[in-house]
Amino acid sequence: MEEGTVPTPSEPPPLPYSLRTRKKSIAFFWTIFVIDTLAQPLILYWCLWYLTDLSPNLVFSIVTASLGGVSVFEYFYRLYNLFRKNSRARPLNSRVSWLDFFQINFTIVWLILAIELVVGSVPEEPYVRLIAMVLPTVMFYFGIVYLSLDIFRMMGFKAPFRISSTPKGSVMPTALYALIEDVVAVDGGGGQIYRYALRTRYLSSPYFRRMLFEMNCFWSGGSIICAAAITAIVFTVQENVAFTLGWALPFAWAIIWTLITIPWVQSDLRREKKAWAENRGQGGIRWVDDISAPTARTRFASVQANIWPWTRGNQSPPSTSSGPPEKVPDHAPNGVSDGAHDVSNDASGSTPREGSHVDDGTYDGATIGSPNAQQSAEKLSV
């Protein structure tokens, strides 16, 4: 092997995070969340409405005042973790804004919901149907925002501002990547080590990017369609039924989508690993977010080809195979640093830029050229 070269690994860069070791904490959180967001408002509504002589205004004032305890705690917990001194949860190399993309959207959606609840509960005769629209509103908001991000990505738009660890002016990231990065890093405790490892995986694997794009379309598109259906139901049926369905149906949708997602992702991760072993990176410019990079057929594409055979010829196979290893830059640091960097996640160029200074406009998230993301991530020094 030539001096200064590194062989392409036989597997995609690892993600140093496991849900299996966190089953109890995940189960605890979602149990409390379901009680707070589903059981509590419905129980309070039915009990106060039918078992007391309280006025409608007072009933819904109590119901709305009791809402969102877990979400409020989570909001300020995230805010503390992002703003505290020497935080290891912030987006990579963010020197100006410490908020991540999810926290910004979390803030906006809470403002929308606050207005919705106040307008719905203040009148003497509350707008029951409007109060029933809280969860569908969340579905509409995140569905539209996250689907729009991927539409802009496919249209070739650059990031107009920093999106978590993706700098302004870089290739627009697929929205699910930003969501996973933020939630696992802050809420899940993965920190900047996970942000770095996920960015390494994202930039090095076209298959991984394609999988996240398809999954984002599935969830975002599904949330918009389901929210529209729930809205039609809420404004059609009787008020008491509308209130119940408005709070219950979003959870039913989320359960169904989750049950579909788990085997889907597991299958795609196995396919990604196989494609990586066979093609050593699967095609495209290494360490660059190239939306047109060829990749192996995903599970969704395989199902689509079986249903619509005429689409089989549209999938581009990987164009690279095991070849000469790439040379590691002499000046590349071992971890995340503020020094020089030789690669860019901007796919508009045909080759990586050499000797570029790392700042908020050019930083691509980390030293992506390292063959072992986990080792480099442990040396994180943002």
TrEMBL record:
Keyword hit for Membrane: yes
In its keyword annotation, does this UniProt entry include Transmembrane?
yes
Question: What is the protein's name according to its record?
Answer: Uncharacterized protein
Which intervals carry biased composition (Polar residues)?
312-323, 369-382
The annotated region (Disordered) lies at 309-382
What stretches pass through the bilayer? 27-52, 58-77, 98-121, 127-149, 217-237, 243-265
Q: Which domain of life is it from?
A: Eukaryota
Q: Which UniProt keywords apply?
A: Membrane, Transmembrane, Transmembrane helix
